[in-house]
Amino acid sequence: MAMSTGSARHSSTPGPSTQPTPTSSYKQELATLFGVSAVMMDQADMSLHRCYERFLAAQDVIKKAQDMWEAQTWPYPKRGLEKDLVEIFVSKSVWFASYKKTFPFLSKYPEMKLWLEKSPDAEVDVDVWGFKKESYSFSDLIGYIERGGPWEESEEEVIVAKKRKGKQKEEDIRDKRRKVGSPRKNV
N or C terminus: fewer CB in 10 A for the chain? Predict the structure, then answer.
């Protein structure tokens, strides 16, 4: 498809064009067709909970589009492809790099699925993830799936952590002595 060098781009009218690009227009038409709310389209909230909610909604839209195509009720000349439909919710790159690498595998992890759904039956964060964090990211979720579940300290990691704590105490004592001018002792 050739790009137009249309006059709107070179017009003497100052400021950006108010005409939507074909992509945003098509995206809005699809959102209207499938009844997708503005909240689901707003990408300001990128919490895993909201992302999972978007994933489920996108899966529903993809299924409905396939059904419409098969029933020959699809209102557009071209079939609605997954890569086009997901852009109602999130960029294609985020969809394929994060959403598709994690959410389809949650059937193996019912406790994580409940947590993402904010179910009243879900366990608390630390029990699901194996560690406490202010907010969890896709990299945390990818790690969770790669480990096969929550992070658990191995005996070796606990020993290393305890040794590190001991070294940290020694360093703290040295620092305090230097600050108060105490004679230096070999610790």
Answer: N
